[in-house]
Amino acid sequence: MAMLRGGLIQMSLKKDASHAPQDIREAMNAAHVPLIEEAGRRGVQVLCMQEIFNHPYFCPVKDAKWFDGAEPVPHGPTVRLMSELAKRHSMVIVAPIYELADDGERYNTAAVIDADGRFLGRYRKVHVPNRPQGSAEQFYFKHGDLGFPVFDTAYCKLGVYICYDRHFPEGWRALALNGAQYIVNPSATVAGTSQYAWQIEQPAAALANDVFIGAINRVGTEAPWNIGRFYGSSYFVSPRGKIIAQASDDRDELLVADMDLSLIDETRALWQFREHRRPAAYGELMRGIETAA
């Protein structure tokens, strides 16, 4: 039985938006360290934080001030700090941050650091929303251009899918077909329309793709945007589609759960979804997607 101990950290903002982005980043990094240390003491093997974990969710409006919060990956201060912590605790860390690329472009990125502190690579959010109310993300982030990589970490084959990505089943399937056993979905989502979807989308994706999923959401409200209450409720879900552990909806929290990776093969043998796929029959779907795009 191959057991994997996962950890998810959800957190409220520690400095309000009147402060400089770099100051907020430092405060949020510092606030996460005690929970990361706790994760180490509790034997967490793979840890993930929320979307752009060390900033507010600044995307409701267009404000170039927040460009200053972007940092290089892997040579910026956050990845350096997380690499030190990962090595100290022999823990894989997924750090979702605002990336400043070498060519000057910016991405909504998750840096993946192995248990020995090595930077394994990054996932860049593929589906970047741009809706009239509450989501000007395309002002801040380019669409991800790295596909759906799976990282061969010390403890599991790990995939990352970020927030709005979760509404698109194609990426979940791509990660699963690329070998992911465990997929993390760091998010920033507020109460309202999305809350019901939060409870069903990741369990459905886990079931359809024979994987474990860790879903992370921040908590609290953030001025001056006040788009609603981030309701936390981070959770782990099994390949059977069952939520096996869930956090509170209103406080900072480290959620820890054990995942039996042998359940992946058991579930796959039971349902045989992958074996019964018929890619040759999906040509019309792909042509329809290309036409719509």
Brief sketch in words of this structure:
With 293 residues, the protein is of the alpha/beta class. It has a single domain (3-292), classed as Carbon-nitrogen hydrolase (Nitrilase/N-carbamoyl-D-aminoacid amidohydrolase).
**How would you name the CATH homologous superfamily?**
Carbon-nitrogen hydrolase
**How many DSSP-defined strands?**
14
Helix content: 25-40%
Class, according to the CATH hierarchy? Alpha Beta
| Coarse shape | globular
Q: Might you state the CATH topology name?
A: Nitrilase/N-carbamoyl-D-aminoacid amidohydrolase
Terminal residue distance:
44 Å
The order of strands across the largest sheet is 5-4-3-2-1-14
The major beta sheet can be summarized as:
6 strands, mixed
Report the C-alpha radius of gyration, rounded: 18 Å
List keywords for this structure.
Nitrilase/N-carbamoyl-D-aminoacid amidohydrolase; alpha/beta; 293 residues; six-stranded mixed beta sheet; 29% helix; globular
Describe the protein in words.
The chain is of the alpha/beta class and 293 residues long. It has one domain: Nitrilase/N-carbamoyl-D-aminoacid amidohydrolase (4-Layer Sandwich). Helix content is 29%, strand content 25%. It has 7 helices and 14 strands. The chain has helices at residues 21-41, 77-89, 137-140, 169-177, 193-209, 262-271, 283-292; strands at 3-10, 46-49, 92-100, 106-113, 119-124, 150-152, 157-160, 182-187, 212-217, 219-220, 230-231, 235-237, 243-246, 253-260. Strands 5-4-3-2-1-14 form a 6-stranded mixed beta sheet. It has a 6-stranded mixed beta sheet with strand order 6-7-8-9-12-13, with helices on one face. α1 runs parallel beside α2 and α4 runs parallel beside α5 (193-209). The longest helix is centred in the N-terminal third of the chain and has 21 residues, at 21-41.
